[in-house]
Amino acid sequence: MTRFIFTFLNGITLAGLYFLVASGLTLIFGLMRVINLAHGAFYLLGAYVSWTVADKTDNWILGAVASALTLAIIGTLLYIVFLRRFQYEELRVSLITLGIALVFAQAMLAIFGGEYYQTNIPEPLSFSVPIPGVGLSYPFFRIFVLLLAIVVGIALWIFIAMTRYGAIIRAGVDDTPMVSALGINVQAVFTSIFFLGSLLVGFAGAVGGTTNSFGMGTDGDFLLFSLQVVIIGGLGSIGGVAIGSFLVGVIGQFAVGYYPTFAGIITFAMLILVLAFRPQGILGKKL
Amino acid sequence: MTRTRSIYALVMVIALAFPFVTPDPEFWVSSGGTRALWLGVAALSMSFLNRNLGLMSLGQLFFSGVAGYIVAITSVNHNIKFSTSVPIAIAAGTLSGVLVGYIALKTKGVYFFMLTLAVTLGLYSFANQAQEITRGHTGFNGIPHPIMFGLNFEDVNLLYYLFLLIAVVLFALCKFVERTSFGIALQGVRDNEDRMISMGYRVMPLKMIAFVFSAFIASIAGVMGVFYVTNISPDSVGLLRSIDLLVIVVVGGATYLGGAFVGAVLIAVFEAIIQDFTVYYVGATGILFIVVLLLAPQGLMGISAQIRARRAKLERATS
Fold first, then answer.
1. Which residues of A touch B114 (CB under 8 A)?
2. B27-318, CATH topology level
3. Where are the domains of chain B?
4. What architecture is domain A2-277?
5. Which strand (E) or helix (H) includes residue A107?
6. Beta bridge partners of A128
7. Tens digits of per-residue pLDDT, A68-85?
8. CB distance A253 to A10 below 8 Å
């Protein structure tokens, strides 16, 4: 029973992290039909930046802010320089982001080497909370990540569903030329979404770099997780990311905990199962 | 047509003479020629799909990996002869194409690309985790070279000619399939799927056969890879290797079958040379990839067509 509860807690807190990582990916895709395959590299870069800053300044929040802003700026610049010109050639853009991922991975390896890092948990949050009924305790920071994911999720939902800006984004998803004809600067909207999506993944890197160790290869792992999450949940939908993160996080952790040999296969079988019935993902729009 | 034929003949002459004319044959026959042929066959399976169905698949490495791991496991763990294990491995890799195709073919474009990438990454994480089956991160080392017809393929020249034979046969097979009514129907699906459906074609079986055929080629490439590098590990199906193949296909020209080999030769030579200058050759390959995508999206094979199109556009503009 204890094992079950721990596995579940691990799964659901990991789901929180996955949500933070994948929401940026889905946000960018939803509006622009661009799958940013450098997303895993962005995450890893965010983790490195926050680790470096937090290590120098001894301030976790400063590290998180630095990594979010760094990634937001890098992401936006890459978008403006490389991607904007080919925006309507989806595959070409995705391929370019893959090339960017390659260059980034190599650059990070050159700077930070092959070791693994982990950012220290900020002092005030570094305690454990007792789990009622079991007599054991669980690190609070992991629960904090889940809370963060919920807050970010609700904020994104309010932003997209209730604000004027969100309405423009939703309209842009459905019919870009029409929105543009209404006198809205769609290019600026696109750029700001790339900014926001990269900001989120930078922040996720700071958070994930604190709960999990990271290093060479983490970029590929998190690219895989994010792809699984958005494929299962349905690309372009924030609610889909929540469902996808929950499934991949919880089922993934149970698989690792109980059937380690087949963990990869089990998550993968789930993906196949979902797609066999809903090729567009659970909450995705029809293909 | 005669021009194409003379180009083919020229390429064949160069390929046959290569081990005897290359400088530093000890290095270049294996690291240049054999490697390019192996990667070229793997890339060919991608090009075939992209050219005839308009689908860019990163799942080819999954099939290669399935076939490669089966050969490695059976020969290292169970001492099964290659004459038994290789056909089984190729059959298994090909059949796994049915499973992947069943899901992936429901999607198109960038979805398809992403889904097949996830499939390959899934095999990578399985190979890493399932230690009892795949020996985890280390994988299988020291897989013996095949001995066929009394020939020991440890000899680099023999292995080169074996790979050349396989590459030529598969290339010709792809060309042949493209000219059959099946191939023409495929190109119809690529250009306008809805119209093909309303003309009464059952599109899904067509796509599935094409996909499984490409899985067959990829499986052969997987076995070639095991014989070439004599080991297999999760990295053989990792993200970097997937990107390597993609780079080859795109740099060579993704809508040309020959592009697979042009790209493979270029990348094999590029990486072999640049390794001497910098340890960051992966990043260098990435930069090459981005530059090609920015400047020549049709790849090297498409450059002349691109120039012709630009010239025609200029002429129209001036007249």
1. 35, 94, 227, 231
2. ABC transporter involved in vitamin B12 uptake, BtuC (1.10.3470)
3. 27-318
4. Orthogonal Bundle (1.10)
5. helix A90-112
6. A139
7. 999 999 999 999 998 888
8. yes
State the ipTM, two decimals: 0.81
CA-to-CA distance for A241 and A24, rounded, in angstroms?
A: 10
Residue whose token pair is 């403006």:
A80
**Distance (Å) of CA A171 to CA A31, A161, A168, A178, A285:** 9, 11, 5, 8, 14
Q: Which residues contact A169 (CB under 8 A, 6 or more apart)?
A: A30, A31, A160, A189, A193
The minimal CB distance from A264 to the residues B122, B287, B289 is found for B122
Going from N- to C-terminal start, the domains of chain A cover 2-277
Q: For residue B125, give the nearest of A102, A268, A12, A56 by alpha carbon.
A: A268
In B144-276, which ranges are E strands? 147-148, 151-152
Query: Which chain A residue has the Cα nearest residue B99?
Result: A272
Q: Minimal Cα distance from B297: which residue of A?
A: A92
CB A117 within 8 A of CB A213: yes
Beta-carbon separation of B107 and A279 below 8 A: yes
Helix (H) or strand (E) segment spanning residue A138: strand A136-139
Interface residue of B103, B137, B235 to substitute, partner A, most A CBs within 10 Å: B103
Q: How many CB atoms lie within 10 A of CB A129?
A: 11
Mean pLDDT of B220-236: 87
pTM here? 0.85
- Alpha carbons within 13 angstroms on the beta-carbon side of residue A71 total 33
pLDDT tens for B141-155 read 878 777 777 677 777
DSSP 8-state class, residue B58: S
Burial B122-134 (b: 16+ CB within 10 A, else e): bbbbbbbbbeeeb
* CA gap B43, B38 in Å, rounded: 9
Tokens of B283: 């990043």
Structure confidence by residue, pLDDT tens digits, B96-125:
999 889 888 888 877 788 888 888 888 888
CA atoms in the 13 A half-sphere facing the CB of A219: 28
Report chain B's terminal Cα–Cα distance, integer Å.
Answer: 32
| C-alpha separations of B88 from A193, B80, B123, B162, B236 in Å | 49, 11, 19, 20, 20
B287 contacts A264? CB cut-off 8 A: no
CB contact under 8 A, B125 and A91: no
To test the contact with chain A by mutation, choose from B66, B98, B108, B125 the residue with the greatest count of A C-beta atoms within 10 A, namely B125
The encoded tokens of residue B151 equal 């020939």
- What does pLDDT average to over chain B? 84
Q: What backbone phi and psi angles, to 5 degrees, belong to B209?
A: -65, -45
Q: Name the token pair of A73.
A: 């700026």
Contact A184, A87 (CB under 8 A): no
Look at residues A83, A79, A102, A101 and name the one whose alpha carbon lies nearest to residue A92.
A83
**Pairing of β A136-139 and β B147-148:** unpaired
